[in-house]
Every structure is written in structure tokens, then in C-alpha cells.
UniProtKB/TrEMBL annotation:
It is an enzyme of class 5 (isomerase). The lineage of its organism: Bacteria, Pseudomonadati, Pseudomonadota, Alphaproteobacteria, Acetobacterales. NCBIfam families: eIF-2B_rel, PRK05720.1, salvage_mtnA. It catalyses: 5-(methylsulfanyl)-alpha-D-ribose 1-phosphate = 5-(methylsulfanyl)-D-ribulose 1-phosphate. The gene is mtnA. Belongs to the EIF-2B alpha/beta/delta subunits family. MtnA subfamily. Pathway: Amino-acid biosynthesis; L-methionine biosynthesis via salvage pathway; L-methionine from S-methyl-5-thio-alpha-D-ribose 1-phosphate: step 1/6. Substrate binds at R54, G55, A56, R91, Q201, N252, K253. The active site is at D242. Its EC number is 5.3.1.23. The record marks C162 as: Transition state stabilizer. It comes from Plastoroseomonas hellenica. Catalyzes the interconversion of methylthioribose-1-phosphate (MTR-1-P) into methylthioribulose-1-phosphate (MTRu-1-P). This is Methylthioribose-1-phosphate isomerase.
Length: 367
């Protein structure tokens, strides 16, 4: 995708030295576009924990490069296992992290030490290329949903939650990919962008992305979506996901479940866009089995923003002495999901629907 006319991916190897890894510091967006240089696996792990890099597919891709960086100083099998274990412990909910690290381990484990570094970089690059193409295909399979609405309305109004665009993936995005394709095809689209408290990934990142691409959008408070649905101002919802179970339950940023309930009550289609790396067929019941990351309460009690004079400041918005809980994700049961948009097509949010698209996963990864 592009920033001010310049094409970028969300992670890349620095062309000047050929080995360090570059990412956007997402904690600085939308106020500043700053690019970080990562030189070892500890810096990669810190970037993931601090959410300088975030988005389930992108976390996996950056972690893959973290393995390559770790092997530059010691290419032994022991070092490989150590790096995979350390990076795998950074965030628990997004299954893409485990998927990418398992793929790296499988590709590198039985190689001679002298071949591991080059193969690690090649495998990480392949993971990135796979994600970019996967997201492009998600866009293509989601586009007909918007075209159908456009065939009977002057404008397509969509609602999305959190950030599932190109800054959350290697390129294109998941939930936003069909929106970008529709906009580029000349279809009049408008996006209601949930602010997504407590970290405001919608207001900060999705709005920034859409604005830079020229897509009409409006930022709304998280609690406004149901009201808009009641008054016919939302044609469909599309969200991303950090993990989808074998029966179609979808874990996503906290607040997604409430949007799905409102959508069901108002007859608004609710679609979940997922790449193959987000499917976890080892889990059946998402509500009971998916681990939900609990983040610092300070993300709830404090807010960071830009003051009228241009300074970036953090302020407290909660009463002093009040405790804060901060579950980072919730799970939307499959019964509330209209369907899933994947790189292989659309399907029902069910085991039968997913098995029809991914038969090899259901044969090899039975619970």
C-alpha cells in the first residue's frame, strides 16, 4: 500500500545493510511516521510486547524475521529453539505468531548450521509474500459483498472494529482489503471507524490508513455502532480476527462481540476476514479455550494524544485509586457470524464451511 504516494510493506529487510529489519512504530501513529530498525530477537520481542508492531498476521511475520536475526550470531539448533520459545511467549491470543514460528522451526531444524541463516531469511520473506498474497485474495473474495450493496444503494456504509488493514498485515489487510479494492474500483464506500478503546487502534490506525488512501470514513465512539445499525446507517460489518476455531468462533479486539450482537439484532451482515494462518483447528470452543491476553490497566486509565500545541502527552482519565481491568480480546461465537472471508473464498462460520475450504487442515489437525 502507499503513504503519500510511496509504496510500503509493513515489514522489510533494510536494503542498505541487507540484514536488519525495518517496521513502522505503530505507537507513534498517527502523529508521526517513524521507522524502527530491529537488529536482534530481543528487540523484536520488545516491539511485539509494546505493540510497536501489532496485528495478528504482522506479528507472525516480524517474529519470523526475529528468528533470522537470532541465528546471525549463533546458528545452532539450540539457538533456534531458544529464539522460537522466547518469541512465542510475547503475546498469547494471536495464533499467527505460533503458526509462523512453527513454520520457521520446521524449515530450519534439520539444516546444517552454515545453511540456517540464509534459509531463515528466505523463509521469513516467503511468509511475508504469502501473507501479502493471502490478503489480496481476501480482498477479491470480499469485494462482491460490497458490489452487491452498491448495486442497490448509492453508497456502501461499512462498520469495522480495531485495525485490520495493511499496517496490521504485511500488505493490503484483511477486513480492509475488500474496502480498498471497492474504493479503487470506483464504488462509493464510507467506513464507520470504531475508536476501539482502550488503545484506540481504530481512531489512530484505521482512520490514518483510510485517510492516506483517500477512503471516506468517520470515527465513532465504540458505543455508537448499535445506534447507527438501528437507524439503517450500516450495510455490513467486516472485522478481522486473531484466531478462528474449527467451528468458526472468532477472537478479535475487545468489543467485537458487542458489535456482532447489535448486528444480529438489526439484521446487519457480520463478516469476519481471516487468513489461513489465523485458523486454529485444535480449538473447538473459542469462548472456553482461547487464551485472552490481559494487558496493563494503565491502557484503560490513561490516554495518549496530541495537544493543541503539537505535543504528544499522556493523561489520566480515570479517578485516582480506581482499579482497571483490561482484557484485550473477546470471542464472537460462530452463531453470530454471517460468514468468513478467506483467501480461498467465503464460507459459513462452521466446521463444515471451513472444512470445505481447508480439508487438509481438518485431516491433519483434529483435536
Amino acid at each position: 500500500m502507499k503513504i503519500d504516494g510511496v509504496s510500503y510493506r509493513s515489514v522489510w529487510v533494510d536494503p542498505e545493510d541487507g540484514w536488519s529489519v525495518r517496521i513502522f512504530d505503530q505507537t507513534r501513529l498517527p502523529w508521526a511516521v517513524e521507522i524502527l530498525r530491529l537488529t536482534d530477537e530481543t528487540e523484536v520481542a520488545q516491539a511485539i510486547r509494546s505493540m510497536q508492531v501489532r496485528g495478528a498476521p504482522l506479528i507472525g511475520a516480524v517474529a519470523a524475521y526475529g528468528v533470522a536475526l537470532a541465528l546471525r550470531t549463533d546458528a545452532s539448533a539450540a539457538r533456534l529453539r531458544q529464539a522460537v520459545a522466547m518469541l512465542g511467549g510475547t503475546r498469547p491470543t494471536a495464533i499467527n505468531l505460533r503458526w509462523a514460528l512453527e513454520r520457521m522451526a520446521a524449515a530450519l531444524d534439520n539444516l546444517p548450521d552454515e545453511q540456517r541463516v540464509a534459509r531463515a531469511y528466505a523463509e521469513a520473506a516467503a511468509i511475508c509474500d504469502d501473507d501479502a498474497e493471502t490478503c489480496r485474495l481476501i480482498g477479491m473474495h470480499g469485494l462482491p459483498l460490497l458490489e452487491e450493496v452498491a448495486s442497490r444503494k448509492d453508497r456502501v456504509n461499512l462498520l469495522t472494529h480495531c485495525n485490520a488493514g495493511w499496517i496490521a498485515t504485511v500488505d493490503w489487510g484483511t477486513a480492509l482489503a475488500p474496502i480498498y479494492m471497492a474504493h479503487d474500483a470506483g464504488i462509493p464506500v464510507h467506513v464507520w471507524v470504531d475508536e476501539t478503546r482502550p488503545r484506540n487502534q481504530g481512531a489512530a490506525l484505521t482512520a490514518w490508513e483510510l485517510g492516506r488512501h483517500g477512503v471516506p470514513h468517520t470515527v465513532i465512539a465504540d458505543n455508537a455502532g448499535g445506534h447507527l445499525m438501528q437507524h439503517g446507517q450500516v450495510d455490513l460489518c467486516i472485522v478481522g480476527t486473531d484466531r478462528v476455531t474449527r467451528q468458526g468462533d472468532a477472537a478479535n479486539k475487545i468489543g467485537t462481540y458487542l458489535k456482532a450482537l447489535a448486528a444480529r439484532d438489526n439484521g446487519v451482515p457480520f463478516w469476519v476476514a481471516l487468513p489461513h494462518s489465523t485458523l486454529d483447528t485444535s480449538v473447538s470452543d473459542g469462548v472456553r479455550e482461547i487464551p485472552i491476553e490481559e494487558r496493563s490497566g494503565s491502557e484503560v486509565t490513561d490516554l495518549t494524544g496530541r495537544t493543541v500545541d503539537g505535543r504528544i502527552e499522556t493523561i489520566r482519565v480515570a479517578a485516582e485509586g480506581s482499579a482497571a481491568a483490561n482484557p484485550a480480546f473477546d470471542v464472537t461465537p460462530a452463531r453470530l457470524v454471517t460468514g468468513l472471508i478467506t483467501e480461498r473464498g467465503r464460507c459459513a462460520a462452521s466446521e463444515a464451511g471451513l472444512a470445505a475450504l481447508y480439508p487438509e487442515r481438518f485431516r491433519s489437525e483434529a483435536p
